[in-house]
Amino acid sequence: MKTDDDTARRLYRLMVTTRALDAEATVMQRQGIIPGYAPLKGQEAAQIGSGAALDLARDFAFPTYREMGVAVAMGVDLIGYFASHHGSWHGGLYDPLASRFAPINAVVAGSVLHAMGWAKGEKLSHGTGVSLAYFGDGASSQGDVHEAMNFAGVDDLPVIFFCQNNGWAISLPTERQVAGGSVAARAAGYGLAAEVIDGNDVVEVFEATNRALQRARSGGGATVIEAMTYRVGPHSTSDDPGRYRSIGEEQSWALLDPIDRLAQQLRAAGADDAFFESARTDARETVETVRTGLVDMTDRPLTELFDFVFTNPTPRLLEQRDAYLSNAYLSNEYASEATHG
Amino acid sequence: MAETLSMQAAINTALDEILTADDRALVFGEDVGTLGGVFRVTDGLAAKHGSDRVFDTPLAESAIIGMSIGLAIHGFRPIPEIQFDGFAYPAMNQLITQLARMTYRSRGALPMPVTLRLPSFGGIRAPEHHGESLEAIFAHVPGLKVAVPSNPSDAYSLLKQCVADPDPVIFMEPKSRYWHKAEFGQPAEAAARIEAELPIGVSRVVRPGRHVTLVAWGAMVARCIQVAELAAEDGVDVEVLDLRWLKPLDVAGISASVGHTRRAVVVHEAPLSAGLGAEISALITENCFDSLRAPVQRVAGFDVAYPAGPLEDHYIPSVDRILAAVQRTLEYRRG
Ligand SMILES: Cc1ncc(C[n+]2csc(CCOP(=O)(O)OP(=O)(O)O)c2C)c(N)n1
Ligand SMILES: [Mg+2]
User: Fold this and answer.
1) Is the overall model pTM greater than 0.90, yes or no?
2) Do A110 and B70 touch (CB under 8 A)?
3) At the topology level of CATH, where does A5-295 sit?
4) What is the ipTM of this complex?
C-alpha cells in the first residue's frame, strides 16, 4: 500500500473506536440513555478514510446524521456530538467552527449546498482549503445535490461531493433510487472529476480523498467520490430491515467487513497482538468516556429554548421568554433562572 | 438641498456603499452582474466592485440560498437576490430548514448575516408568479426577520440596517415603487439620521391623524396616504403607520397609534386569510382593547392566486375598499 504503515494503523484505530462507539450507541438506546441513533456499522472505512484525510487547519466537513465516524476521525468532541442523539440539542453541542465540522443536519441533502457555498468563500479568499459534503445514495436524488454540483462545475469550486452509497435509503435500494448507473456518473454532466471506489477499503478511501483534496487545492475543482459500501445495521434504532431485505444479503457484506480487511493487511505487514489489544483498549476508553458523559448529561437550561433563535433577538421573543420563565407553574429553579439569567 | 431619487437608485447607492465599506459583503443572484439586475437595482456594481464581489449565479434559487449559508459559515456577509417573489418558493427549503435555523442549530456559533433582496408584491401587470406577497410566510418562520421599505430613503437606510444585522433578513422591495422618486438627503447622513431615530423594528407615523389608524407597508403606504387625503376632505383625520419591519413587529408603535385614534384598519396585498392583518389585529386587541371604538378592519388581497392583467386592480386593496373600511370603523356602534 502507498499509505504508510503508521497511517494505516491510525486509520485502523479510528475504525475500531468508531465500531465500538456505534455498537454502544445502540446499547444506550436500548437502555433508554439516548432516544434514538442511526448506526453506521459497515461504513467505517468510508467515514474514517475520508474524514482522516482532511486538514483541520483549512478544510471543512458538512455531515448528515450518520457521520459519527467522521466526527471520530476529525477529533470532534464526541459527547457534544452524541448530545444530538441524546436529544439535548438538535445539531449537537460541539463547536462547529473549531471542529471544522458543521452541525449535524437532519434534512437529507440539506448541507450539500452549504459545502458548495463554503468552497465559493474559500475560492474568493484565495485559500487552499476544501469543503467535503457528505450525502447518501438517497440524498443523490435531491435537486440540491444537482444544483450544488452544477454551481461547483461552473465556478471550479474546491469541494468534494462524497457519496456513501450504502445500498439503501431506509427501505429503498440503490437500483430504485439512482438512474444512469451510478451517482458518480452524474459528475460527467457537470464537468466534475469522479471516482467510484471500494468504500470498505479504508486505504483506498483515504487515498481517493487525498487525490480529490489535491485536485481541489491546486485549482482543479470539484470531485464526486462514490464510496460503495453497505449499511449493515438498521436505518435507525427504530427501523426493521427484515421488512425490506434478506438476512442473506446482510451476511454477504460481513465478508467485506472493512475492519477485518485492514486487520489482515496490518498483520501481514507485521502488526502484533499488542497493537490490536491497544486499539481495543483505546476504543473501550473512548466508549466509557462518552457513555459516562451521556449518562451524566443534564437537560439544557430552559433559557436555551429561546436563546439562539437570533443573534440579535426580537423584543417579542424576549417577552415570550421572560413571561414563560417567570410563570408560577414552573419549578423554582426556572423561576430563579428568569430573574438571574 | 435635498435631491430626489427613485427607490431603485437608493438601493443601488446603499449596495454600492455597503460593498465599499465591508469587503466581506457580496452581492449575487440571477442576472445581477453584467446586466445589473432585471430592475437595474445592481446596475454598475459589478463593473465598479469586480466580479468577485458582485456576480451572476446559475439559475437555481435553492442553490443561491444554500450558497449564502456556506458563505456565511466562511465569514462572508452575503446579499443574495432572488429575481422575483414567486421564485422564492424553490428556495423555501433552504430558507426555512437551513438559513432560519443555522444560528439556533449551532447555538450561535454560526451567525447568518444574510440579507435576501426580494423584489415583491404586485401592481406592475407582471406575468404569473411575479406579484406575490410572501411576508406572512416569512414572518411566521422563527429565525427570519422581514423588512419592507415604502420610500427611497427608507429603502436605503433599512437595507443598511439589514446588512449590518447578524441575523437573516428578507428585504422585500415593493417593485411597483422602484421608479417613484422622492426627496432624499445626503445618503450617508440620511442613513445615520434614520437609524438613530428608527432602530430595527421601529415603525413610522408617515401622516399623523386623530380618528383612525391605517396600518400598512410597502406600496400600500402610498395608497393609504391617498386615502387619508381623500378622507380629510370629509373631515376624517386619518393616521398612516408605515410598519417598515414585519418582524420584529413594532407592537409599541402600533399600540401607541391605535391607542390614541381608537380605530384601526390593516391594509395588505397578501391574501386575507392567515395574513399578517390577522396578527396585527390580534395584537391591537391584546394591547388596545379598552380604547377601541370599533373592531379592527382588514383590507387585503382576496384568497385567490395572484391574478393576471387588469384583475390585479380588483385584487389589490383599492382606495375605495380602504375608504369603506375606514367608514365601517367610524360608523360602528356597540350592539
Ligand atoms: C428531505 C428529507 N426527506 C426525507 C427525510 C426522511 N429520511 C431520513 S433518512 C432517509 C433516507 C436517506 O437515505 P440516504 O441518503 O441513502 O442516507 P442513509 O440514511 O443511507 O445514510 C429519509 C427518507 C429527511 N430526513 N429529509
Ligand atoms: Mg443510503
Assistant:
1) yes
2) no
3) Rossmann fold (3.40.50)
4) 0.96
